[in-house]
Amino acid sequence: MTSHLNLKPHDVTLQERADGSFLMRSNLPLGPVARRTGDWLDHWAAKTPDAVFLAERQGQGWREVTYAQALALVRAIASHLVKRDLGPDRPIMILSGNGVDHGLLTLAAQYVGIPTIPVAEQYSLIPAAHPRLSHAAALARPGLVFAADATQYAAALALDDFAGVEALSAAPGDSGATDLADLLVPSGADITAAAAAVGQETLAKILLTSGSTSAPKGVLTTHGMLTTNQAQIAACLPFLSARAPRIVDWLPWNHTFGGSYNFNLMLANGGSLYVDDGKPAPGLFDRTVENLGLIPGTISFNVPVGFAQLVRALEQDAALRDTYFSDLDMIFYAGASLPQDTWAALERLALAAGGKLPLITTSWGLTETAPGCLISHEPRKVPVSLGSRCPGSRSSWCRMPTCAATCVSGAAASPAAIWTTLKRRPKPLTTRGSLSPAMQCGWWTLRMRTGACGLTDACRKISS
């Protein structure tokens, strides 16, 4: 009952090697890959200038920014950023969560080759988490720090780590921070050369790992990683290009799921991202329910616990159920497996709402793969598969007595070292010389079990 989505079957080649490893490649062709994220903005501002790109709640309604407005604001902000001493060694650190201003600043920086480093807002808002923020500041050494509300983030901005660093805010109050409104009027600086210099190898952002097992590490994410990953997704999910997607989404932009996958999925396909200022947490989920009742999405992203809460809300409110499923093409979960009872309930509710099933699916990846490297794009009835390889990438699995490792190669894999130490930061755009210059790809190895790992030929030659 998902025939209306024109889904493509999985199509991979699996090669077993003499050393016991497996090499998997996708047989689906990879479509055109944008040179930089700014190309998407330029394209949609010209093609669909009045379509909503970003929106956030404002009073009882929404503050909406169209593609044409976004491009004008991005170029204006960029004209001020190029006059500051900013770049890979002095990125822009973003303290606050998802919002229109956050998105515009991010794109303005990327437009002229300045990376951003968004951090979890709790690092700033919870005093006990300030050491994590100090750690991030020491890693990045930012040249500019942004907080949407300078009063709300006053304690974080006052940390010694930001002494002498310009603060920027959309609500500066009496903090002394530069008012973002001042940057929304073009400075007169010519950004043509800076924009033209941005390419697939240019650093777009630095994303911090969760730090669940050690101090957070900074993962260097290039424009090519982001643009390649979106081309891979589009090749697997053709309905994305059939009509502009729309999401109401809470997933945080400091994380690769919300900030790289979802944000760029809208930008790459001329879609609309409505920022959900709720989340599946106590006291906040009611806001999510309100937002979903206002705007029907074509795609619904969430973690399994969020979908479980949503099922309960949909079962109790037929109007919400009908609105939620009225235009829905895909339900996408990640972070954990979706329980079978939640999956079955979503299908049952979809059929009750209109008789048409969305694709219920997932993907697997890491911050280092920008993030998707596996995706399930066939209809299934149970959550048993992470999917197949994304086009344009390869992976190997080596099986040894002490180690089971997965290696991934492709243009969406991080091409540079991960920042692991405060002592010395590597050159941010150093690409491993042994890899294909045409791919400009990186590779990483994930140890699935502890133990010494002697890399097999599949791991060492994965880019060959």
Automatic annotation (TrEMBL):
Pfam families xrefs: AMP-binding
Q: What is the designated name of this protein?
A: AMP-binding protein
AMP-dependent synthetase/ligase domain ranges (all copies): 41-391
